[in-house]
Amino acid sequence: MRLSRYFLPVLKESPKEAEIVSHKLMLRAGMIKQQAAGSYSWLPLGFKVLNKIVKIIEEEQNRSGAVQLLMPTLQSADLWRESGRYDAYGKEMLRIQDRHERDLLYGPTNEEMITDIFRTFVRSYKDLPLNLYHIQWKFRDEVRPRFGTMRSREFLMKDAYSFDLDEAGAKRAFHRMFVAYLRTFYRMGLVGIPMRADTGPIGGDMSYEFHVLADTGESAVFLDSDLLDKPIPAVDTDFNGDLSPIFNDWTSLFAATDEMTDEATFRASVSGNKQMAARGIEVGHIFYFGTKYSEPMGAKVTGPDGKDVIVHMGSYGIGPTRLVPAVIEASHDDNGIIWPVSVAPFEAVLINLKAGDAGTDAACEALYAELNAAGLDTLYDDRDQPAGAKFATADLIGIPYQLILGPRGLKDGQAEIKHRKTGERETLPLGSAVARLKGLIEPQRRDKV
RNA sequence: CGGAGUAUAGCGCAGCCUGGUAGCGCACCUGCUUCGGGAGCAGGGGGUCGAGUGUUCGAAUCACUCUACUCCGACCA
């Protein structure tokens, strides 16, 4: 993409509405524009990151055996009356009437609707286990939206719903999602720590929130620091096999939010040098809720013995529009964002230090073509701007690698690569620049690990 | 929903206390010069001062009402 033809409205100063660093940087980098409280337009750069995150989620959901579909944003109130939640849900739920004065709502979640789909089509235990998911916009009329897209009213959510014959089956489904989530966050360059969460009236140990550690996290969390070094289940993990060893390994170490524990318990449970009190951003939540919806809504299958069985369900959420700021909170410096390669809007930025100079232009054009041919997603800064402005923009929008080309190096046939994360610079012959970048970038895509 | 604030050009701000026909920086447009860390000089465009009502000869400025947005708290992917 040529920057001169792109739409990248970067700001030198951050709008005063922004309080936390990710919000400021998303505004300054031209990723989002607020349209109302808790409602945002996603500008091209932000949308590109959001889509990369969504793609990773889809790949890992599919790998785990979940099947994607898409449900509407507007739902009939009748469905929610069946589960009893139409009255139980508070003012967070946006209620609407259509022209016939029928009650509708903008879905804050989809348990009722997916249960309706299930009961319509699934009749036999032979069709289980089943896990259906979608990635759709939700609306929750939060009393106080804040922190940009971290806590917005309209937000994108991946929600998966598992259906099993009994609790044992539901547990296996739960483990599959648990492992998928570990992989999903890892692939985004994050460490998503599973933490015991409130199970509500169901009880048991099948409710985990995944948190990304960040100073600006909304929850106080306590964990065993060994969790940060645990190996992530590999790409060839058998999702049809027994995943309980992985689950048991991860959950054997202490990790909980302040809602689930207190500091004294934490101090007593974890050895001193491994105690880690931090703050976390909740980026995912998986939980088992049994027959809470299947019972009242009549979601059942015929079992092996010919008798009807109410199915056991679980639901599994991830917030992509929250993950974008979460990545930024976890990875930035004074100059701007530092994207992990796997979610970066562009993998490299080619900086032409003297646009308009025939020699530099020609060399950049050649390199740009070479970068594209090598399959590297590249932004080419071909604008007629001072060098400093280009460096500042490149740093701000956080592209992992800058390939810098100017008359000075060019006369010796040299290009320069700057690593955004470390600030390291290397000078190398023009002819080897693309191969070098490819070698740096490909392993960091994390698409084969 | 309780408490506290803010609203003046695309963004960041001054002006308001002590009413007198709106200003600065950045951004934008034109020209020239620059060109390895947010360029320099010259010229230029852009604002019913959030909305409404009132006080006054006169309101960005004073009063009242409303709206939007932000922050703190309780709630949540």
From TrEMBL:
Q: What is this protein called?
A: Proline--tRNA ligase
**Mind telling me which InterPro entries this protein's record contains?**
aa-tRNA-synt_IIb, aa-tRNA-synth_II, aa-tRNA-synth_II/BPL/LPL, Anticodon-bd, Anticodon-bd_dom_sf, Pro-tRNA-ligase_IIa, Pro-tRNA-synth_IIa_bac-type, Pro-tRNA_synthetase
Q: Which UniProt keywords apply?
A: Aminoacyl-tRNA synthetase, ATP-binding, Cytoplasm, Ligase, Nucleotide-binding, Protein biosynthesis
Which lineage ranks, top first, belong to the organism behind this chain?
A: Bacteria, Pseudomonadati, Pseudomonadota, Alphaproteobacteria, Hyphomicrobiales
Which gene specifies this protein's sequence? proS
Q: What is the protein's quaternary organization? A: Homodimer.
In its UniProt entry, the species of origin is given as Devosia nanyangense
User: Could you tell me what reaction this enzyme catalyses?
Assistant: tRNA(Pro) + L-proline + ATP = L-prolyl-tRNA(Pro) + AMP + diphosphate
Q: Name one GO biological process term.
A: prolyl-tRNA aminoacylation
Q: Which family does it belong to?
A: Belongs to the class-II aminoacyl-tRNA synthetase family. ProS type 2 subfamily.
Main localization category = cytoplasm
Domain Aminoacyl-transfer RNA synthetases class-II family profile: start-end pairs: 38-340
Purpose of the protein:
Catalyzes the attachment of proline to tRNA(Pro) in a two-step reaction: proline is first activated by ATP to form Pro-AMP and then transferred to the acceptor end of tRNA(Pro).
